[in-house]
# Entry
Amino acid sequence: KAGVTQTPRYLIKTRGQQVTLSCSPISGHRSVSWYQQTPGQGLQFLFEYFSETQRNKGNFPGRFSGRQFSNSRSEMNVSTLELGDSALYLCASSLGEGQGISPLHFGNGTRLTVT
Amino acid sequence: AQSVAQPEDQVNVAEGNPLTVKCTYSVSGNPYLFWYVQYPNRGLQFLLKYITGDNLVKGSYGFEAEFNKSQTSFHLKKPSALVSDSALYFCAVRSTSGTYKYIFGTGTRLKVLA
# Structure
């Protein structure tokens, strides 16, 4: 079974631009979460989607948004990029509720550099 | 509010010695607890989880963790460390009630010395 796939692996953008990151979950997984990882801050929760609905949201500004499609694939968008947005963005999928407590399965991340 | 603390930024241990990576948590209700490992330029890999039952949980690669409710801790352990265990380790918690949100600690870098 294929793992969680994130594209692209690397991105370099300029301040003020916007960016879209993509995540394809493991087949059958209906929950997709996004995390921002920076040195010293660990993993900061961005949002979680289940069956195309946002169930949870972290404490990030409105410039960070996401969505989930009917095939469970998810995209994350960051508008008006700032230097501080440079980070590794991780996507994780899981089965979702009703099927036990399944762990999160992570992709290898998208490394975003804002210059 | 849920929170996870990993008090040590880095743990150094000699190869063959036992290792412990500490984690304490705060959550309303009962916790679901997890350990993940991250190798360079990779995502996190699941090691083990505590849902309910036996306080000692066994996971991948010879790792185990002990759940202590009174101390709200979930320390990761391994009887004999390998150089290949050197990586970044994350503890995570999720409440059994309400939110489906996972909260991660800031990570502990484990360095196993040959």
Summary: The longest strand of chain A covers residues 42-50. The two ends of chain A are 37 Å apart (CA to CA).
